[in-house]
Amino acid sequence: MKKSLALIISASTLGLAVPAAAQDTDSTFTGPRVEGIVGYDVSRAGSSIDDEFNEDNDQSIEGLLYGVAVGYDFAAGGALIGVEGEYSRSTADVDVEDGDVENFGLGNVDTGRDLYVGLRAGVLAGESALVYVKGGYTNTKYNLRSATGTTEFVTDLDADGYRLGAGAEYAMSENSFIKLEYRYSNYSEGEIDFPDDFPDSDRIDLDTDRHQVVVGYGFRF
């Protein structure tokens, strides 16, 4: 009888706790949101094209990432599920110096726009904090420049891949929040977009890794 009573009390406590958690999540972290982001961005040649024989060759490009994101989150049994999209750009670039074309394996490169759409799932970590994981599809462009005298020929490498990430979000109020997030992207396919009337290339295999650490500030409505 005592065991049955203990089980009933435990079940009742859990039944009260889960709706309470769901209510807290719903009131603080759900609904539409918009945010600005800024952070560190580095793209690097993947393992299949690393220059393992000469570690002095810099096969990465680094810079400042900045952009905007929108999303919608809703509570699901004490957890949070959301959809989100993002547009960002980066200052990361590299130029060939003294004939060295090892940098990033592509020569003169500027990082273009980056698009992302995906899902995230999180749980509460206190009354005002949320920890989450995310994943989805990403498409980016790298501007490939080949300078000849005073003429510069520019093409775009249009790359597709996936993104995984994790982060923490803190509610500063019912309508504003800050977050810290790490994301890893891998681009495995792409095509060369030529300018003017030249046709685009066929799909090609790629191996490019991208690491980003960002902070964000946003609002919920």
TrEMBL record:
Principal subcellular localisation of the protein: membrane
Subcellular location field: Membrane
Residues annotated as signal peptide: 1-22
Keyword Transmembrane helix assigned: no
Gene Ontology CC terms, in alphabetical order: membrane
Superkingdom field: Bacteria
Residue span(s) of domain Outer membrane protein beta-barrel: 10-219
Pfam families named in the record: OMP_b-brl (PF13505)
Metal-binding as UniProt keyword: no
Keywords for this protein: Membrane, Signal
Sequence similarity: Belongs to the Omp25/RopB family.
Protein name from the UniProt record: Outer membrane protein beta-barrel domain-containing protein
